[in-house]
TrEMBL record:
Keywords: Glycoprotein, Immunoglobulin domain, Membrane, Signal, Transmembrane, Transmembrane helix. This is Major histocompatibility complex class I-related gene protein-like. The keyword rRNA-binding does not apply. SMART domains: IGc1. Residues 198-290 form the Ig-like domain. Residues 336-345 have a biased composition (Low complexity). The keyword Endoplasmic reticulum does not apply. Belongs to the MHC class I family. The chain crosses the membrane at residues 299-323. Residues 1-18 form the signal peptide. Pfam families: C1-set, MHC_I. Residues 330-360 are annotated as: Disordered.
């Protein structure tokens, strides 16, 4: 029997962030005698690690400051029983699996699961296990039946389905608690989830494998994650050939970045115009940034140095003016901020009476 209090300040503020948000966990058990902790687990909110735990610790810790101390403690208290329960079970499953196959040496058993929530309310959840990095068994949360990825895992499929405690534990977390934590994060922390407009920079360099030029369209600072970046020729033709795209990567401030590189021959530079086009939820219309070829790359470096020097001088002057202005307005802004924060906290705290207690 697992008795669990779901986050006491689950807020039901009607606001939504565009895109898909997720809460995923990753746990891995390793054979003893390797020098590594026998179990390590992390939780990821979208692309940001939020908790860390290993078997040498008494309890998990938060690895982010995306929520304040009080809310963070309640959030962690909700997750902790599930993390510790997996710590108890997964290393034991590893030992049993190694013995069942009569294996020797170093082996690992991984558990990956979590939930995803779309801005239209669509929900998805998943849970799967791997042995030595290969798919082993996965759980269908609708039917609560396990699927064996390899014939050797059929035995464990039946074993998991017969384990009612494990089944109930998995059902409660993946169909209820995971989504409640995710919704709490979205609804109570919207200040950090506001749409953010991307910044676009074009970087030119000599192509490594041809006589042409690589032009990198660096798009960064945007939120939510979903973004479309394309190279356009002559304001109409969408280019695919000669274009290489990187992955969408997280920044430290919970925004994202993406690079898309176009290789242009010297001949085509004279015949056509090129622009990087960005489409994002924060934009009213698509953003087009035209590429102006530099006469010579070394001139670009000289220009960059001059601009950097001028920028430093201007920054010092502007910084002094801003400091002076902020100093004179500090009292007014502090009073306004205190009033606003008090209102927001009261709104979430007033709903604390809706504390939901689950007994499973």
């Amino acid at each position: 029997m697992i008795r669990m209090t779901v986050l006491g300040i689950l807020c039901w503020v009607h606001a939504a962030a565009a895109g898909t948000h997720s809460l995923h966990f990753f746990g891995v058990a390793t054979s003893e005698g390797t020098g590594f902790p026998k179990y390590v687990a992390v939780e990821m909110m979208d692309d940001v690690q939020i908790t860390y735990f290993n078997s040498t610790m008494e309890k998990p810790i938060l690895r982010t400051d995306w929520i304040n101390e009080t809310k963070g403690r309640e959030f962690l208290e909700t997750l902790t029983p599930y993390i510790l329960y997996s710590h108890k079970r997964i290393p034991r499953i590893l030992r049993n699996t190694v013995q069942h196959f009569n294996h020797t040496g170093v082996h690992t058993y991984q558990q990956v699961g979590g939930c995803e929530l779309d801005d239209d309310g669509t929900r998805r959840a998943h849970l799967s296990h791997s042995y030595d990095g290969k798919d082993f068994i996965s759980l269908d949360l609708k039917t609560m039946t396990w699927t064996a990825a390899v014939p050797q895992a059929v035995f464990y499929k039946h074993k998991r389905e017969a384990d009612r405690t494990w089944q109930q534990f998995s059902l409660v977390y993946h169909t209820r608690v995971c989504f409640q934590l995710l919704e709490w994060y979205l609804h109570c922390e919207m200040e950090t989830l506001q749409r953010k407009v991307p910044a676009v920079t074009l970087i030119q360099r000599k192509a490594r494998e041809s006589e042409g030029t690589d032009v990198i369209c660096h798009v960064t600072g945007f939120y939510p994650r979903e973004v479309e970046v394309n190279w356009i020729r002559d304001d109409e033709a969408l280019l695919e050939e000669g274009v290489w795209s990187g992955e969408v990567l997280p920044n430290e401030d919970r925004t994202y970045q993406l690079r898309k590189t176009l290789t242009v021959s010297l001949e085509d530079q004279k015949k056509h115009s090129y622009s990087c086009q960005v489409d994002h939820a924060s934009l009213d219309e698509k953003m087009d940034v035209k590429w102006v070829p530099e006469a010579a790359l070394n001139m670009g470096f000289v220009a960059a140095g001059v601009l950097a020097a001028l920028g430093l001088i201007i920054a010092v002057i502007i910084g002094a003016l801003i400091w002076k202005k902020r100093a004179s307005a500090k009292e007014q802004s502090d009073a306004s901020s205190t009033s606003s924060n008090s209102t927001n906290n009261d709104r979430c705290d007033s709903i604390a009476e809706k504390l939901m207690t689950q007994t499973e």
